Amino acid sequence: MLEPQQTLAWYRSGEEHFRAVLDALSDAELAGPSLLSGWSRQTVVAHVARNADGLLNLLDWARTGVETPMYPSAEARAAGIEQTAQQTSIQLRADYSAASERLATAFAELPGRAWSAPVRTTQGRPITAAEVPWMRCRENWVHTVDLACGAGFDRVPDDVLAALVDDVLAMWARRGKSPDLALVATDVDRRWGGDAAVTASGRLPDLVAWLTGRAGTGTVNLDGPVPHLPAWL
After folding, report:
1. 158-222, CATH topology level
2. What pLDDT digit, counting tens, does each position of 14-42 carry?
3. Buried-most residue among 15, 19, 144, 160 (CB within 10 A)?
């Protein structure tokens, strides 16, 4: 498990990155399409805002011991994102900023004992609060790419990219859906997996784009047939 001291630093830099890219978007650009099918950039920002509040619920759960799921239901989660996305650009930007600040305050004020408190993800996976900073880090960096405005995976630090590969592979393994696949990052001399039916090689940012279903402009080379990649999240 990644240590919260490390992932908190990644989360903070990711939050700054997302905010900077959002601030650089005009209102007209904010209304434009994102990389995610059917979602505008506004919807991506709305999702990131409501994710902050969902993770805040997990920190409240860890701090108080009172079960507080990220969202009351999948339907409530979807409705919250939709309602948030329908705000004016000024309201949406302020909403995101306020949610981001609430989460930052909760991280800063979480008692030491609470980091090891058990909580559950939206998918029902048992974790401790120590994993929550990584969950937010992942949201920030990946959804900045989804804003589709030039801030690709090549803007993500290598250690965060490597952790994203680890995360994808771990998710697949937990579901028993791991493809017979090895990965080689040619730019950082890193390999995942041993002998496999297919080896995918390329720059680390391009591997992450491919694994997370966000194929970018880079190239991933395969030494065999294209494998089926299960969904990540």
Report:
1. Nonspecific Lipid-transfer Protein; Chain A (3.30.1050)
2. 999 999 999 999 999 999 999 999 999 99
3. 144
